[in-house]
Write a structure and sequence with these properties.
single chain, about 425 residues, alpha+beta, Nucleotidyltransferase, domain 5, 5-stranded mixed sheet, 4-stranded antiparallel sheet, about 15% strand, elongated
């Protein structure tokens, strides 16, 4: 007997001893009067054992067949088992049983079976308590962004970085694979988000140099606010960059990392994906759509805070690297190991010593801009040679002393005083 049945037995025993009426017993047990009467009749006939449900210890009418259970567990053991860090969880295994093997089984049923067979464990690492922050109310109001380094391809390929963006209000995700968390990798992912959803109001990131640059002591004293290339791109789009002071502060994207490190790695293992080019194709083809369909939620407010990209805004001129260069006396700019010659015909004259912005695009192409105007230029094959300066130093010639100069007289006198042996040797 369980606790509920024991409690009912005690109340009905008081009815039998006339301490309580059946109406009062029904109120205490939270049952209807008719149900209490039925229980009391069974109690009088069979005693306390009569209150035990008749299906206790028997096989459920809705139970799966033993043969079906053995087949399911064999598939899980063969395709989705392994060490604790590699094996599929019950929910993910149930999804792939339906997708790959056309075997439909409820995730909770599969969880019980896997626990009984030792294919899954309940043990979880206890985490410190932290109060959950409420989601933002609008889609596009705040987007969290971070990179996750992991052996995404396991032994089939090198270690890489998943640059991941998650909307705070809806958990809508977008991600791309790169080898490192570089400026170009971040820019490519952000551009995909802008092209798909629009321009978000704010970007929530950690204090990595690729996003935010911490000013030096000298810059603090001079009031200089350094800006990264990604920060410059966001400024052009009007996106505010907010730095998180801890990983827990951007928990939405951090929890997304954990989900991808579990489900995405296992899905790519099944498909034998061995390159990040194919991994990105898998992300765009089906994975992100399925992921968002499963985990994305509806925002509290209907209004979408994304801004549309203006027709006059060229994203190629936004998502590029920018550096400033000075114009030399012969109207040549140095950019790395390249020498860029400005042409004479320009819409606006370019002054010697003025500053020109050099924009490097994703494909390596360059655009030179000054005051909003695009400049015409061509690249020189080698470094321009300057003419050697003419030396203006005076050459001073000293005259020879005369034969009767006092210097010569003193030298002859010194030779006359030498001993005979020395003069003979000479």
């Amino acid at each position: 007997m369980n606790d509920r049945e024991t409690r009912r037995s005690g109340v009905l025993d008081r009815v039998k001893s006339e301490d309580l009426t059946q109406v009062e017993a029904a109120e205490i047990l939270g049952l209807s009067y008719r149900q209490t009467k039925r229980l009391y009749r069974r109690f009088l006939k069979l005693g306390a054992e009569g209150l035990v449900h008749g299906h206790v210890g028997k096989r459920s009418n809705h139970a799966k067949a033993a043969r079906f259970r053995r087949r399911v567990l064999a598939l899980v053991r063969k395709h989705y088992g392994g060490e604790p860090g590699e094996r599929f969880g019950p929910t993910l295994a149930a999804e792939h049983l339906a997708e790959d093997h056309k075997v439909v089984v409820d995730a909770e049923t599969l969880r019980r079976w896997m626990l009984e067979e030792g294919l899954w464990t309940r043990a979880r690492k206890r985490k410190p308590y932290r109060q959950r922050r409420l989601r933002r109310a609008h889609f596009g109001e705040l987007v969290q962004m971070d990179g996750s380094f992991e052996d995404w391809l396991e032994e089939r390929g090198p270690r890489g970085c998943l640059i991941h963006m998650v909307d705070d209000a809806t958990s809508t995700s977008l991600a791309t694979f790169t080898l490192e968390e570089t400026t170009w990798g971040v820019a490519d992912t952000l551009r995909k988000w802008v092209e798909k959803y629009g321009i978000p109001r704010a970007l929530y990131v950690d204090w990595k140099t690729v996003y935010l640059v911490t000013p030096t002591e000298r810059q603090k004293q001079e009031g200089i606010v350094p800006i990264s290339q990604v920060g410059r791109m966001c400024a052009k789009l009007g996106i505010e960059i907010i730095g998180a002071n801890s990983p827990q502060a951007k928990g939405r994207v951090e929890r997304g990392h954990g989900t991808h490190q579990d489900r995405l790695i296992k899905k790519m293992r099944l498909k034998r994906i061995a390159t990040y080019e194919k991994a990105n194709a898998f992300l765009e083809g089906s994975y992100l759509q399925q992921h968002n369909g499963k985990y994305a939620v509806t925002a509290r407010e209907k209004a979408d805070f994304h801004l549309a990209v203006a027709a006059r805004l060229d994203l190629d001129q936004v998502f590029c690297l920018e550096e400033e260069r000075k114009v030399s006396n012969d109207w040549v700019l140095q950019y790395g190991k390249r020498w860029l010659q400005l042409e004479a015909e320009q819409k606006k004259p370019v002054g010697v010593g003025s500053t020109v912005i050099v924009r490097q695009h994703r494909d390596g192409a360059l655009t030179l801009v000054q005051g909003g105007a695009v400049l015409r230029w061509h690249e020189l094959p080698e470094r321009p040679k300057t003419a050697a300066p003419v030396s203006k130093r005076r050459v001073v010639t000293r005259p020879k002393p005369a034969p009767d100069h006092p210097w010569r007289k003193s030298m002859r006198a010194a030779q006359g005083r030498q001993p005979e042996s020395a003069r003979g040797a000479r």
